[in-house]
Amino acid sequence: MFKLSTYLWCCCLRGCHVPRVRGHPLAVLHHLTDFPPNEDADITLPSQPERHYGSGTEDDPFVIYRNSNLIGQNDLKRLRLVCISDTHNEIHRIHIPDGDVFIHCGDAVRFRTCARDIRVFNDFVGTLSHRYKIFISGNHCICFDPEHPEQTQQILSNMTYLQDQLIDIKGVQIYGSPWRPKRGIIYPAEAFGYDPQLIREDIWSYIPEDIDILLTHGPPYSVRDYHPLTAERIGCPGLLDEVVTRVRPRIHLFGHMHECRGASLYRSEDNRTLEGEYSHDKSNEILFVNLAIHQGKTLGEAVVIDYYY
């Protein structure tokens, strides 16, 4: 639906080549927590959803159903997800609630000491009580070889490493991918950076349909992706298009943009322009959550989601 001309290249810094997005529709969202630091003046948010989705805390988790027909039923299975991202060597300072699945969406370490600290991170995760533990890489994990994910899995012996892979946990389909549009050679923390003009076809088009939960490190375009230093949205438009028009997961978890931590709800009926020819009568809701823990001198909290199916 949107062509390569979506991207405009900024070369104001030597070796930078930062991709800027132009002319792409924005996602209209209901912000459930932590209202983002930016909102375009010409975008009017609809009223908040009638149903209470929770606040993502241990005592008041987000409550998400596989489909709306299940709401109110009593014989459902429940999978409790405990989710974080961008801990940057500070995971030991975070309270991690009990649950069924521990999820980390990348940047557990800092790039300068990645090779040493990723093993410390693995040891810490080994002490957690969760039966299932999932990790995808982030741009700071420069010690990982993208060509040999099996070697990364050996290092991360206390968790399941997902690099463009699907895992089934008690009938819940979870897919993880670490890639994001690359920013250029001046950025030292650039692991899993990919050509922005090719990433949709080469990476995102392989995300399977009918999954329950999608994990990426970077955000989709216009979904909690604002960079305050550049006043730009840096999320991936190709990822947004695939997620809302084809993949349609119930939950999409990511991190990377620390300033935009929080949860937002996407609804098809608010996004006819974005979905275009893929719009249909059946309503589609997606819970988007930016899980970035590291907030400068402070740390956020783990996000807890109860998934019913």
Quick tags:
alpha/beta, 309 residues, 26% strand, six-stranded mixed sheet, Purple Acid Phosphatase, chain A, domain 2, seven-stranded mixed sheet, 21 strands
Please summarize what this structure is.
The chain is α/β, with parallel strands linked by helices and 309 residues long.
Element pattern in H and E? EEEEEEHEHEEEEEHEEEHEEHEEEE
The SS-based structural class is alpha/beta
CATH top level is Alpha Beta
What is the CATH topology descriptor? Purple Acid Phosphatase, chain A, domain 2
Number of structural domains = 1
Mean pLDDT: 91
The share of residues in helices is 10-25%
Largest sheet: 7 strands, mixed
The number of helical elements comes to: 5
Low-confidence stretches: 11-15
Name given to the CATH homologous superfamily: Metallo-dependent phosphatases
What does this structure look like?
The protein has a seven-stranded mixed β-sheet with strand order 3-17-18-16-13-10-9, with no helix packed on it. The protein has a six-stranded mixed β-sheet with strand order 4-21-5-6-7-8. It contains five helices and 21 strands. It has one domain: Metallo-dependent phosphatases (Purple Acid Phosphatase, chain A, domain 2, 4-Layer Sandwich), CATH 3.60.21. Strand 7 (132-135), helix 2 (149-155) and strand 8 (160-161) form a beta-alpha-beta unit. The protein starts with 6 loop residues before the first strand and ends with a strand. It is of the alpha/beta class and 309 residues long. Residues 80-260 form the Calcineurin-like phosphoesterase domain.
